[in-house]
Write a structure and sequence with these properties.
The chain is of the alpha+beta class and 115 residues long. It contains three helices and six strands. A six-stranded mixed β-sheet has the order 3-4-5-2-1-6. Strand 4 and strand 5 (85-91) form a beta hairpin. Helix 1 crosses helix 2 (45-61). The longest helix is centred in the middle third of the chain and has 17 residues, at 45-61.
Length: 115
Amino acid sequence: MTSKELLAFTLKVIGDRHGEDTVAYDMQGHSILADYYVVTSAGSNRQLHAIANAIIDEAHKHNYYDYRVEGTSESNWLLLDLGDVVVNVFTEDARDFYNVEKLWVNGKKLELKED
């Protein structure tokens, strides 16, 4: 599966689960860790976990099992490492506090379509 395909299904799942203020950065040529970084917010801890679980479920549907999840059931931030795509799902307060997007200022912020 290509990194663009991973990114596409990840963004679709986030949209389907009503992730908010979603941004994606193309880091090809800037990061050796991943091609794309995605950040989204959830209105609650429950929604945060629903988004992450839906991404994992979709990965399985595509026979993609090479991922890691960092965070716990009590976390206000989950990181899903899909290899070429890294997804950060935050509660709104945690996103404001950690401000991880500052790490990717060298990347190209992608235009995302609103459905």
